[in-house]
Design a protein that fits this description.
- This protein folds into 2 domains: 47 residues, no CATH class; 189 residues, Rossmann fold, CATH 3.40.50.
- The N terminus and C terminus are likely disordered.
- By secondary structure, the protein is of the alpha/beta class.
- Helix 8 links the parallel strand 5 and strand 6.
- The chain is built from 11 helices and 7 strands.
- The termini are far apart.
- The strands form 2 sheets. Strands 4-5-6-3-7 form a 5-stranded parallel sheet, with helices on both faces. A two-stranded antiparallel sheet has the order 1-2.
């Protein structure tokens, strides 16, 4: 099969680079511009173009890195950075090191997931953390996204209100809503914080279903947090959306207890310096059994 028969990169992806040096010399006294770093194949197979050329037959085939390059190009405009507050998140640092003493089962489930982050993302398996405000749900979810980014995967990170605002803004942008939904479907991991924290309108419910369903059909992972249990979330978002979310993420990890953010705030010293962690971290409780 010739190169021309392959599906082209999306418009926003860089073109295959011509590696030949131009036959030019800088004028006397002029400095040669610094060369940009050549794209490299993360697998060490191709020359960075995404194709492996077979010289004997003068044909080319897709490199194993090409699918990831296309996905990265499509999702480049999405927010894939860990917020400053969570950049140092670790199982060995508070609040997670404190939480491990009272929620060891929950922490172990997340540890197991991140140990197999590549395998889980390849299989489209996600993670769903539910519980009260301030119990560490977002911190745990950010740790998952951080591990995915460290593994070289594409990640989009949004609170649900921010994501909905982005969807509304996309209605007037080039490519429109469909292009944004396509990018959200292509990213390796979609992180949505505060699921259920939105005003219910037909438009909102339709967009949430479109996002979750696209991820479900593409076998792409989602990590999400919510203050609501599945039955409560079904009442707000609709049973079909939550059903697909459960297919992607499995049973939610429950994390209930006191608001740790308030405990830390109340424990600050008079000069404003952070105090030590509370002696009794939030204690998770089991969710009520479903009828």
């Amino acid at each position: 099969m010739s190169v021309e028969e392959f599906e082209p990169f999306p418009e926003e992806a860089p073109a295959v680079q011509d590696l030949r040096e131009p036959d030019e010399r800088p004028r006397s006294g002029a400095r040669r511009p610094a060369r940009e770093a050549e794209p490299r194949c993360p697998l060490g197979i191709c020359d960075g173009s995404g194709f492996v050329v077979e010289e004997e037959t003068n044909t080319a085939r897709d490199c194993d890195c090409r699918a990831a390059r296309i996905a990265a190009a499509r999702t480049r405009s999405l927010e894939g950075r860990i917020p400053r507050r969570y950049r140092g998140v670790s199982f060995e640092r508070p609040p997670l090191s404190d939480l491990a003493r009272t929620a060891s089962d929950q922490i172990q489930l997340v540890r197991s997931y991140v140990r197999g982050i590549e395998r889980n993302l390849d299989a489209g398996r996600g993670l769903w953390i539910v519980g009260d405000v301030g119990t560490g749900k977002t911190t745990l979810a950010m740790l998952v996204s951080k591990e995915a980014l460290d593994a070289g995967r594409s990640v989009a990170i949004y609170s649900l209100p921010r994501l909905l605002n982005l969807l509304r803004e996309s209605l007037e942008s080039p490519g429109g809503l469909v292009a944004l939904l396509d990018r959200l479907a292509a990213v390796d991991l979609l992180h949505v914080d505060d699921l259920g924290a939105e005003n219910q309108t037909d438009w909102v419910l339709e967009q949430l279903y479109s996002i979750v369903n696209a991820r479900y059909e593409s076998e792409r992972a989602i990590v999400t947090t919510s203050n609501l249990m599945p039955d409560e979330l079904s009442d707000r978002l609709g049973a079909r959306t939550v059903s697909r979310l459960e297919e992607i993420c499995g049973e939610p990890i429950p994390l209930f207890g006191a608001d740790r953010r308030r405990e830390f705030k109340g424990a600050r010293s008079p000069d404003g310096a952070p105090a030590r962690a509370p002696a009794h971290p939030a204690t998770p409780r089991e969710p009520a059994a479903r009828p």
